[in-house]
């Protein structure tokens, strides 16, 4: 992937995508505002959610061990994965042990992060996405553009064409008379997936939350496909980021209020699925939980950057971001687009690539993202923090041009004689500019700074000279030396 400015410039040329994004984010944004305004204690809920997350992260090791103990006691098998490679290897081995060559998947950001579908394909295992938007992305050989609505950049006509072109290649074909009516599109997807639901032996999910004191996992969704994946297969594998832990059930109550309102603009999600280990004669016979680190421990060690681990993947920040609305999700080069991706991806993947190093700068710092975040992540502060890191890494330990300039200015301002000399040198250059009032772009290190700013030409007279002249004209006998 190229760096964000280059990719964004290409995406801006896609007028259909920009129109789709503006329409969809506007609808979600307005729905969220309506349901949030219904609550008198919305800000108190945000404060509570942030406090719960911060408290949990401070003692994350203890809560993870408690979750593991209780999940095992309930009949689940818990695996620990340090990185994406280890997590993929664990999942592939479990699928093979179940004697399966295909899996059903619930929408999961964690599995997209580790590129599980690609790893399964290399191992000869077919992975079928069951979320409608994820199905559209998969059949279209596309890449998600939004956390909540991965196919937000597609309109109904494009979805119809994708279904007619691709469904027959991987299962039940779409009806020949398929239209772009949403009901007909949903029906085509439902019929296409039904045969896969009924034959699948293995289901793969993520989790919105993991409850430490019972070893339970929680998924909230809107379509019911997740419920099918969690109950029909014989084996269930859940890949869960270690930051998804909540200590108690009472903590979950807060998040079940802030998440749906921030995410889909609903008072509650249509489907909330909670499972704890294995239940006799009900659901999967084998339940596996893969606790994923993948550099989250490194993020946790950063006292500033760790605030990003509060994120509950609601996507509210994307829906208000003026940069995302125009550039779309693909320009971010990650499954985490928008403001949250700009601070999460560089911490999970590092800043070694052009796109990752550019992401902290993919923002106007307007602060709208922080205002709507249900867990009060100070996104602008983290963007500035990461920008500093990127610049420091690029310098390789050498002082920046800005730092050198500030030290030079401190030296000049530290003595009045040096300041007077600098002022005289500046005013003497005034005659070179003639009638011009501003200086154009400056060369060298100042080119980037001056290209977007109008710099006034030096004045013909300094304030000190003006003051002495005015005093001399009013009182020729004034002691001008004492005016200094």
Named CATH architecture of one domain: 3-Layer(aba) Sandwich
Helix fraction, binned, reads 40-55%
- CATH hierarchy class name of one domain: Alpha Beta
Number of helices: 23
Radius of gyration: 29 Å
Largest sheet: 6 strands, parallel
Main sheet strand line-up: 1-10-7-4-2-3
> Based on CA inertia axes, which overall geometry fits?
elongated
Task: Quickly give the structural class.
Answer: alpha/beta
Overall mean pLDDT score? 92
Detail the poorly predicted runs. none
Pfam families: Fer4_8 (PF13183), LUD_dom (PF02589), LutB_C (PF11870)
Protein name: LutB/LldF family L-lactate oxidation iron-sulfur protein
Keywords: 4Fe-4S, Electron transport, Iron, Iron-sulfur, Metal-binding, Repeat, Transport
Quickly describe the structure.
With about 475 residues, this protein is of the alpha/beta class.
Structural description of this entry:
Strand 5 and strand 6 (about 215-220) form a beta hairpin. The mean pLDDT is about 90. Helix content is about 50%, strand content about 10%. About 40% of the residues are buried. The protein contains 23 helices and 12 strands. The chain has helices spanning about 5-10, 15-35, 40-60, 60-75, 85-95, 110-115, 115-120, 130-140, 155-170, 180-200, 225-230, 250-265, 295-300, 315-320, 320-325, 340-350, 355-360, 370, 380-395, 400-415, 415-430, 445-450, 465-475, and strands at about 75-80, 100-105, 125-130, 200-205, 210, 215-220, 235-240, 245, 270-275, 285-290, 440, 455. Among the domains are: about 40-295, 3-Layer(aba) Sandwich (Rossmann fold); about 400-484, no CATH class. The longest helix is centred in the N-terminal third of the chain and has 23 residues, at about 15-35. A 6-stranded parallel beta sheet has the order 1-10-7-4-2-3, sandwiched between helices. The chain has a 4-stranded mixed beta sheet with strand order 8-5-6-9. With about 475 residues, it is α/β, with parallel strands linked by helices.
